[in-house]
Amino acid sequence: MEYEATIGIEIHCQLKTATKMFSGAPTSFGRKANTCVNEIDLGHPGAMPCVNKEAVAKAIEACTALHMTIDPLVKFDRKNYYYSDLAKGFQITQQFHPIGRNGWIEINTDNGPKKIRIERIHMEEDTAKQYHLSKVSLLDFNRADTPLIEIVSKPDMKSGAEAEAYVEALRQTLYYIGVSDCKMEEGSMRCDVNVSIAPKGSDKLGTKNEIKNINSISHIGKAVDYEIERQKELLEAGEQVHQETRRYDDKTGTTILMRRKEGNVDYKFFPEPNIFPIRLDDAWIKDIQDHMPELPQARKERYQKTYGLSDHDISILIDNKEMSEFFEEVMKYSKDAKSVCNWLLSDVSAWLNKNEKTIDHCDLKPEHLAKLVKMIDDGKLSNAQAKKVVDDMMEGRDPQETAKAKGLQQISDTGAIEEMVEKALDANPQAIEDFKNGKKRALGFLTGQVMKMSRGQANPGLVNQMIQKALNKRVNG
């Protein structure tokens, strides 16, 4: 039997704010455990929450970027449950009044672009972080009350590849507008994926399994594809798919049972009594939307129109926001967008990878890369010679001065090259005879002889051109 998968994804994304959602404690990844916390985060009696205005602004930006309808009346609800990572015994969230509804984001699939609908975005606070050791569990409350948005998709995805593309599109969008740093490896973006399968054409969905806290985009696709196959095998063996919470094990490439779900948990939601509803000013919302950073799709279209780059080059550039911004800085000094892009995506990226650095944490200057490209375009350096100055340029040194110090200036003096060409022809009469007899390799051989004479500094294009001219003259008289 042929089956069809239905996939929905819930993403928790930490907002990039200086302080927490309902307290003035700092939000800082990597700080010493339990040093970024106060009485509000810990739920001490009488401690009163206060809504973080910047967090609301960033939630509005996220909603706008994802084409959502924004609710100008902000209301919070209390979600009641006890767990060790929730000191208060409840979480402040937006169960009934999400700040955003009915949006979408476009992904690329093998069958072309596809819109994935987004049901809602709501604001809430994060929980503490648990560390489970062999005999004890440790709690770090630094993460407690960190501002979150939860993004809930419609079940519009059908494969692991589509799930991956959806999360990547969201990650890129939220990162570009500065809503979050979206570092899945640090937990600032966490995904729960719901997967079910049913016979193709059925109007009834299958039993849903949830895969919790997947921490990398590549793992999302692998987890979904494995889960689809696991459920297929159960159904084809005549067994039942139970509603379960599972986790993905990247070492085995499988999903592992965490617990069975016997029913829905009653969280006894009710309006948060310590936060009155807040009516957002329409002018404030509009001001936020009018001053949002450029979205990835808009940047892609601008690069196509302004720089004439290929879709492939644009895609790679835009995938790395810092690289894209550096490219634009270089283009303030250069007119050769294609060459600048090529150097960034090849030799510069190779150096960064080798030295474990990023483009915003190295000493390369935009004007230096522009200068290197111009030296090549002007025939002052060959590509091979230019590669020999990359290491120095990446450490902040001027490529022109480096090339001069290393004796790498390319020879484009036609008189000097003509003299070397004549010497090469005089020394190799057999090559002239081979050329006369239609042997093309003679041209390459003679070019190599001239390049050797010039110690690799002659302009190879000019050398080739002048050898052909000289050969034709000697052969045809």
Q: What does the model show?
A:
The chain is of the alpha+beta class. It has 16 helices and 16 strands. It has a nine-stranded mixed beta sheet with strand order 2-6-7-10-1-11-12-13-14. A hairpin with a 4-residue loop joins strand 13 (244-249) and strand 14 (254-260). Helix 2 (160-176) runs antiparallel to helix 3, helix 13 (414-427) crosses helix 15 and helix 15 crosses helix 16 (460-476).
What are the salient characteristics of this protein?
477 residues; alpha+beta; 9-stranded mixed sheet; 3-stranded antiparallel sheet; 16 strands; 40% helix; elongated
Strand order of the largest sheet: 2-6-7-10-1-11-12-13-14
The 3D shape can be described as elongated
Percent helix range: 25-40%
C-alpha termini separation:
78 Å
Low-confidence sequence ranges: none
Number of helices: 16
Structural class: alpha+beta
Q: Radius of gyration in whole Å, from Cα?
A: 31 Å
Main beta-sheet strand count, sense and barrel state = 9 strands, mixed
DSSP strand content: 15-25%
Quantity of strands, as a count: 16
Mean pLDDT: 92
Question: Quick gist of this model?
Answer:
The chain is of the alpha+beta class. 40% of the residues lie in helices and 20% in strands.
Give the SSE map.
Layout: E1 3-14, H1 53-65, E2 69-70, E3 73-74, E4 77-80, E5 90-93, E6 100-109, E7 112-125, E8 129-132, E9 137-140, E10 147-153, H2 160-176, E11 189-199, E12 209-214, H3 217-236, E13 244-249, E14 254-260, E15 270-271, E16 278-279, H4 282-290, H5 296-307, H6 311-319, H7 321-330, H8 337-354, H9 366-377, H10 383-387, H11 390-394, H12 399-405, H13 414-427, H14 429-436, H15 441-453, H16 460-476
Parallel strand pairs: 12-13
Antiparallel strand pairs: 1-10, 1-11, 2-6, 3-16, 4-5, 4-15, 6-7, 7-10, 8-9, 11-12, 13-14
Helix pairs in contact: 2-3, 5-6, 7-9, 13-15, 13-16, 14-15, 15-16
